[in-house]
Amino acid sequence: MGWMRRWLRRIRYLVFRSSEEREMEEEMRLHIELEAEDLIRQGIAPRVARRRALLAFGGVDRHREAVREARGVLWLDQLRQDVEFAFRSFRRSPGFAIGAVLLLGVGIGATTTAFSVVNAVVLKPLPYPAPEELVRVWPAAPETGALRRTFSVPDFRDWRDGSRALDQLALYSDLPGAPVLTGYGEPEEVPSVYVSGEFFDVFGVEAALGRTLAPRDDVEGFNRVVVVSHDYWTRRFGGDPAVVGRTLTIDEQPFELVGVMPPEFAYPNASADMWVLISTIPQESIPTERRFVRFLFAVGRLAPGATIEQADEELDALATGLAERLPDTNRQLTAATVDPLLDVMVGNARRSLWLSLVSVGLILLITCANVAGLLLARVGERRAELAVRISLGAGRGRVVRQLMTESSVIGLLGGGVGLLVAAAGSTAVVRLATGLLPRATEIGLDGTGFALAVVLAVATTLAVGTVPALRGAGDGSGARALTGARGPLSRRSSSVRRALVGAEVALSVVVLVGASLLVRSFAQLQSVDPGFDTDGVATMTMTISGERYPDRETYMQFYRAIMERIERMPEVEAVGSLRQIPFRGAGESVDFSIPGVYEPDPAEARSSQYIHVGGEAFAALGVPVLRGRSFDVRDGPDGPPRLVVNEAFQRRFAPDTPLVGRTVTLGSGEAEIIGVVGDIHQRSLDTPPDATIYVHQEQEPRIGMGFVARVAPGIDPTEAAGAMRRIVAGIDGDQPVTEVASMRAVLGDTLVRPRMLTSLIAGVGLLAAVLAAVGLYGVIATLVRQQRREVGLRMALGADRPRVVRHVVHEGMAPAFAGIAIGLVAAASLVRAVEPLLFGIDPYDPMAFVAAAAIVTLFALAACAAPAARASRLEPARVLRED
Amino acid sequence: MGRKRADLLQGTLDLLVLRVLSREDLHGWGLSKRIRQLSGDVLEVNQGSLYPALYRLRDRGLIEGSWGISPEGRRARFYRLTRAGQKEVDAEQENWRLFTAAVERVLVAD
Asked: Prior bond to A129 cis, omega within 30?
């Protein structure tokens, strides 16, 4: 209470300073006058009385200071003076102040942004109660090396009911075919997650409105209930609370909307808009009650006190029991894998994010070194001024305080700019990273990160701005600086500055080596031949509605109608279909044998990818038929079953035997191989092509499909894809299309994530090089200024201009080369950490190291160029006369 | 050591000011005059030193000032003891008595 009043007084004093001062003066003047009048009444002559009154009072100024001191406002007062003085001196050299503030701002802003992202994604616990108890659970088939397989509903029930270490376990899946909402304007596919009734209980999250799904809903007859995301509720229903309880038509069935989730609930990802019970999937479309139908994921909560190891052990035993009891379906699934949920969610992003944070942290260090260099240079140049102030009676403490104030003001202004940069940065990251980065929606400006960056920056400016100044103020060199018009070169401070610049260069080399590795790796990735043409191909993905086309005959009619009309388009040269277009998912997998060629022991059997194709899929994609032939009209629904395999299949299972004409035994029967086609990267550019069996859509239909159409030269495939969508709408206006895009755009999507990381780190690397160059420029420019006389003298003694240039460049490049050497060594010891992020190149890739060194050398030379030119233009006669 | 003595002196002046103000409201010069009178001119403090003490006491909320017209017909700031100030006087007066008694005993014993 008391301290508060004192502070209020002090602040009041500062604010109403002039009136308070006036009152104090008035009081003191009155005192002296009254004292004098009193003395006059006692008979003393007026002039004497006045002098005695003044004497008795004892010095108005002294007491005024004492009053200020007594009130504890003296230092506040001086602080104000110091701050004002700092701003005045910044106005005198705005280049220095603006430069330092901007440098710090960029460093602090970038570091804060990076820290905010890492904190939100990797460090912060998940936004659910007791998040450390949440786990992902997977069946494992250790014999085949597959430790994370998917669940079927019956397997899940056995695990859920048999486990004690798990408090709760729930199933979920985001199927590729999203259910269709009709009756609310245009029919629309709603990205949905199919879940079991326990799903929301596992997370322990309440609905924002209405209620969540619960185990009691998961009963035939009561299970047509859905929950929607907050985002979808706002977007589609205008945030109307009255929709809760309303009936929605989903896949032509009535569902009750029972709740809206809070905005921060985004599991399994931010694109989930609706949660539907798995038990509502018709058995005809996916027989979920069959034990071998495995496509589901499980998330669970550990019982209080239980550990992941206990759960793992217990579930291993459960799985082994099931495998023994049900050899037909569970023979391979003899174990379980249990992972912390956070680890699975963050996954690969962790390493990229740490890399970004470390790179950006190095930028902050470079920035601090740079600002340190600037401050050192400034102190060197201000020695004369400091000397004058000390000799005019400013206390040494006062001068130091003045310098500290200046440094703090720079640090704090830098912090302010940094805050703006960080606010813009984290907003941009959220926008760019949504969908690419797990938990992107949780990213926000992070106070801790910001505080850390500002503290580091202010500490740097304080340490560097003050210590050398103190030395300068005390050792008499300042006085010398006064007597000689130009101060003697402070060898010590310039060698400190050179060391700082060397360190900056070394740090920037480290960042640049990392950046070059990523750039090279990205180039490798881009140069991978996908095995098919990405130009001139239009794609369209859809899933034929099972409700509207319930049997094979009707949906195949629909399919054929679409194929025919696309084929008739004048701009289309060839059209085909695939179960999944490349980069949008793999096919199914199938167990098989080739009598006489590949007859493995069942325990060691390797499955093959199994992809349904129709029409002229290979021709449309430009995949070559290497041997035999592709599918054609001979391979209709009534023809003998036939297959095409790819080159990888041939290499892997029959390296020495021609396969065309061979018979393959599959679960469904026997089929003849009619051809071998070239490999394509079905899953992604960085996974090698899988051994694949292609089966004909006419012989084994699927309702989910991607159409691929080769367009004539000069036709824009994106426009052709749009025309394909209109063809579907022309046949059936209620059939939604999932996606239309050019193949080039599909390829682009797969490169977005690596491209983002690569450009980010490359940008940071270039920024590092620029900052180091700025630092170097500062040192060299100061040096040239300080050595004007020396240079002039040399020139007068006959040194020619090239020689002067060489001298300056040598002065600059010596610390730069030292820094590059140190940086390369440091980078070599650190690159192992980036290895998992690289594709197709060695972390010790010499090109990356050479490139980093070359870039830094170029920047350093550029930094030396202007000062060297300035030095060579010096007029010796003028320079020597100056002093 | 030096600081302690300063505190002691300061504390003494504070106590005198508070004690005098507990009887009547006074302006700066009046206060200074009264202290001299009451102490029989023994406590001839440097008159200006009064003001730091006044401002300090005011910042601590022990006294408050308001502008008025002095008996001499001049505009002056009058100081008045607050309730907190009254408590302070009572407590400090007691302390002072204990202190002087202790000093007295030491002096007599010598």
From this structure: no
- What is the Cβ-side half-sphere exposure of residue A88, based on CA atoms within 13 angstroms? 8
Residue A698 maps to a domain: yes
Number of independent structural domains in chain A: 5
Supply B95's token pair. 């302390």
Unique residue bearing structure tokens 């994370």 = A148
Strands A247-250 and A180-182: antiparallel
Neighbours of A759 (CB within 10 A): 14
Structural domain includes residue A141: no
Whether A536 is in a domain gets the answer no
Q: Running DSSP on this structure, what letter comes out for residue A441?
A: G
Residue A648 within any structural domain of the chain: yes
Report whether pLDDT(B11) > 70: no
- Domain that includes residue B61, residue range: 2-109
Quote the domain boundaries for residue A184.
150-332
Return the amino acid letter for A646.
N
Return the half-sphere exposure (C-beta side, CA atoms, 13 A cut-off) of residue A858: 9
- Judged by a CB distance cut-off of 8 A, whether residue A470 touches chain B is no
CB A772 within 8 A of CB A764: no
Cβ neighbours, 10 Å, residue A375 = 26
State which H helix or E strand residue A173 sits in.
strand A166-173
Cβ neighbours of residue A567 closer than 8 Å, sequence gap 6 or more? A575, A615
Q: Is A71 on the interface with B (CB under 8 A)?
A: yes
Query: B106: which strand partners?
Result: none
Strands (E), A661-773: 663-666, 669-677, 692-696, 704-711, 739-742
Q: Does residue B53 sit at the A interface (CB-CB below 8 Å)? A: yes
Name the strand (E) or helix (H) holding A574: strand A572-578
Q: What percent of chain A stands above pLDDT 90?
A: 31
Query: Do A31 and B28 make contact, defined as CB atoms within 8 angstroms?
Result: yes
**CB spacing of B74 vs A6 below 8 angstroms:** no
Which candidate, A442, A621, A653, places its Cα nearest to that of A530? Answer: A621
Q: A202: pLDDT confidence band, cut at 50, 70 and 90?
A: very high
Under 8 Å between Cβ of B78 and B65: yes
The model's pLDDT over A71-107, given as tens digits with 9 standing for 90+, comes to: 666 667 677 777 888 888 788 877 778 888 888 888 8
Cβ-in-10-Å burial (0-12, 13-18, 19+) of A403 comes to buried
| pLDDT for A349 beyond 80 | no
Q: Does any CB of chain B come closer than 8 Å to the CB of residue A5? A: yes
Into how many domains does chain B fold? 1
Amino acid at A659: L
CB atoms A70 and B46 under 8 Å: no
Tens of pLDDT, residue by residue over A367-404, are: 888 888 887 777 777 777 777 777 766 666 677 777 77
Burial of A398 (0-12, 13-18, 19+ CB in 10 A): middle
Q: Are A209 and A230 in contact (CB under 8 A)?
A: no
Residue A71 has its nearest CB partner, among B27, B56, B70, at B56
Q: What is the ipTM of this complex?
A: 0.86
User: What span, in angstroms and rounded, lies between the C-alpha atoms of B36 and B43?
Assistant: 6
**Looking at residues B13-38, what average pLDDT do you find?**
87
Q: Which residue of B has its CA nearest to A4?
A: B60
Comparing CB atoms, the residue among A6, A30, A63 nearest residue B52 is A63
pLDDT digits (tens, 9 = 90+) for A525-563: 888 999 999 999 999 988 887 777 878 889 899 999 999
Which residues on adjacent β-strands are paired with residue B26? B79
How far apart, in whole angstroms, are the C-alpha atoms of residue A222 and residue A415? 58
Q: Cα separation of A125 and A325, whole Å?
A: 40
B-chain CB neighbours of A6 within 8 Å are: 59-60
User: Is residue A883's pLDDT more than 60?
Assistant: no
Do residues A730 and A643 share a domain?
yes
Same structural domain, A106 and A165: no
pTM for this entry: 0.66
